[in-house]
Amino acid sequence: MTIPSSDIAFTPTIKAIQVTRGSRDAYAKIEARGGFRTGITDDLATFLAGVDTAYLATANASGQPYAQHRGGPKGFLRVIDGSTIGFADYIGNRQYISTGNLAENAKAFLFLMDYANCRRIKIWGRARVSDDAAMISRLMPEGYRAKPEQAILFEVAAWDMNSPQHIPQKVDAADVQAALDRLNARIADLEADNARLRQRLERNPT
Q1: Rounded Cα gap, residues 73 and 154, in angstroms
Q2: Within 52-125, where are the H helices?
Q3: Higher-confidence residue: 17 or 92?
Q4: pLDDT in tens, 67-92
Q5: Which of 4, 67, 69, 159 has the most Cβ atoms closer than 10 angstroms to its Cβ?
Q6: Conformational region of residue 129, where left means phi above 0, alpha means psi within -120 to 50, and beta covers everything else
Q7: Is the pLDDT score of 206 beyond 80?
């Protein structure tokens, strides 16, 4: 029997809880279709191109979990191939917890939020650190003022997009500024038109 990809998250214990809480039938239908999505689709690639922040979760050999924020310009998460996501890992506080965890346990998880559109994507897989200079250069966002130390290569095993409920809608400051710039430009045009009409009426009163 083929094991559904969603079993990466749904252990027997979790399935038993789903039975108790009444949600097992719904997830059983997903399993019947094969489970969560696996390879990187066009939809996921498009989502990644608009991401400027992510959370990478790892665990050490004893199972102690850790989540680390990773960020950069939109699109800093790059599609390497049909199953691999990569990003440049910049020099930070130099604790190296994620790096050490991955040296002991390759299992990893990416949690991505799109607050503007109330979407979230969960990605399970395995990750590794790369010191390859060519790969680091390939993944480094052009013009971004940060010093890359290594690259993280994340092999996707399964991914899922969650329900939008309970996600607060938040808009990126740059998007707000762009909207305000367009609005201010429109206001300036209307004010200029109004001034021209006033001048015309003053020259030709009725």
Answers
A1: 19
A2: 97-104
A3: 17
A4: 999 999 999 999 999 999 999 999 98
A5: 159
A6: beta
A7: no
